[in-house]
Amino acid sequence: MKNRICLPVAGVLLTVLASAGCSGAESSGCPVPRAAEVAEVAAGAATVAKVTFRKVAALADGTTETEGWLVEGTGTVKGPALGRPTAVWPTIDAGTPKEGERLVLFLSPHEGRTTMDGAAASGYDVVREGGVLVESGGGLARLCREGRSQPVPPEILG
Fold first, then answer.
1. Which residues share a beta bridge with 19?
2. C-alpha–C-alpha distance, residues 35 and 113, integer Å
3. pLDDT digits 0-9 by tens, 31-66
């Protein structure tokens, strides 16, 4: 009788541990960035920018008001340098970075005049879901609402 109880309990426990990420596998809610996907997202972006996250800010463009990000450009992988100040309209899947975190953003210019906290700003949209990477553990991880993916080598940017 005891064996019938222990085996199902052990199976359930292993399933719970694996789904909690204890197995070392990636979370399905925040997949590891893959080289082909990063190349595809970069191809659709006007700018692939390296930035430092400064704060969450109130963004507006005449029709939409929402929270976005104030970032400071530190370099580009592709495309023109970012203007100052730079306002970013993130995608809904991205979590909120911590102040001072270094990000790689896949961006296109935001249509319409952008204001940030009431002042004019250069506005950019993250081109699509999965377009926010964060420096993590010597590599780059995807930033998601659920947290972060496992980091991959920074060479993934090409």
1. none
2. 34
3. 999 999 999 999 999 999 999 999 999 999 999 999
Tokens describing residue 2: 């005891």
Q: Classify residue 30 by burial, with Cβ atoms within 10 Å: 0-12, 13-18, 19+.
A: buried
Residue type, 108: S
Q: How confident is the model at residue 28 (pLDDT cuts 50, 70, 90)?
A: low
- Cα four-point dihedral sign 95, 42, 30, 102: negative
SS3 of 56, please?
Answer: strand
The set of residues, in sequence order, having a beta carbon less than 8 Å from that of 140 and lying 6+ positions away, is 33, 104, 133, 134, 151, 152, 153, 154, 156, 157
Q: Which amino acid is at 29?
A: G
